[in-house]
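Hi everyone, sorry if this is the wrong subforum. Our group has a chain we'd like a structural model of before ordering constructs, and none of us has done structure prediction before. Sequence below.
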Amino acid sequence: MTFISAKSNQGFLIVMGWLGGFGTCLMFLQYMSRNCSSHPFIPYVAQDINPSDKISSNSDAAPTTPPAAQPEKPILLLWFLPENYKWDFSDCKTIYNIDGCHLTQDRSLYNQADAVLIFHKAISWDLSNLPPSPRPPFQKWIWFHVESPTNTKRIPGLENLFNLTLSYRRNADISVRNLLTVSKTPNKFELPKKDKLVCWFVSNTNPSTGTGTRMKYYEELSKHIKVNIYGNMAGSRLKDEEYYPTMASCKFYLSFENSIHKDYITEKFNGPLSVGTVPVVLGASRENYEQFAPGDSFIHVNDFPDASALAQHLLQLDKDDEAYRRYFDWRKHVSATPHLIMWNQEFITYICHACEYIGIHRAYKQAHNIYDWYFS
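Answer:
Right subforum, don't worry. Here is the predicted structure as tokens:
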């Protein structure tokens, strides 16, 4: 008979107890695998737990990351309403899908405004109606002007006040013009019916505004070809709803600018392009026009030695449908959008573009001499 000593008995009991505990663990794990397989064990990791986080039921999913805080929209303070034209600032979002800034007229927000848009024609000669000085160091002033240099008053003291420019010029910080758009797929274009040969919508005939050149050319041209006149020069303006349909009914439209300057190519050019009429342009050089539209989409007065030769060319095109239609070959892949008919409404587009610009461009920009740039 074998006897186990007390010390050995104690060791024996420890071993048996350990084996029994191990067996119990195995039985427990088997039970869990059978009955709890649909509820996997999720370990608690202190550094990953946030009371506001929802724990995913997918154990393979990455921990939830709270969304990044959205930066506040910059404030654009409209210091003057251009030509006192009032409109709903929400139009920037609803019409142009521009929502990059907080646009306001509230001058109490001046010290918080990221940028101030200042309409040149509204500035008094003594500068007394400009925003107060000193301005906040982070704030940009935007010079808002879309007239040609010929029709611009050089108000003294503005030279080095502005950080940004909004203008028709291509090299403005914010260039505002209706650009043509290119399409990869062919556009559907149908030439409108024409019952007039040459048309011109003109209201401003004041020589002091630089119109002398275009009036002199018109007078010479009209000796050789009939020109249908509309606008104040004809006694009354067209109604808004008649403007583009009338233009579309003309084979040629006199896109004569009131003054001749680089990049000064206005709605007088874009309008006929958009409605299917050939513009006959007088203004900047042909090379400058071709930076904005295909060279075979318009006729330039500089292509002819005089108004008589231009008239003969237009009369010849009136008899040659095939040659006339070639002026619209560009429409297969390029589209033109008309300007707003009410000229005051164009300011809405310009201001909304300024809003879009400051929403994107937050970098520092020093003030510079706007006159050296604009009158060069």
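For your construct planning: Residues 75-177+346-374 form one domain. The longest strand covers residues 250-256.
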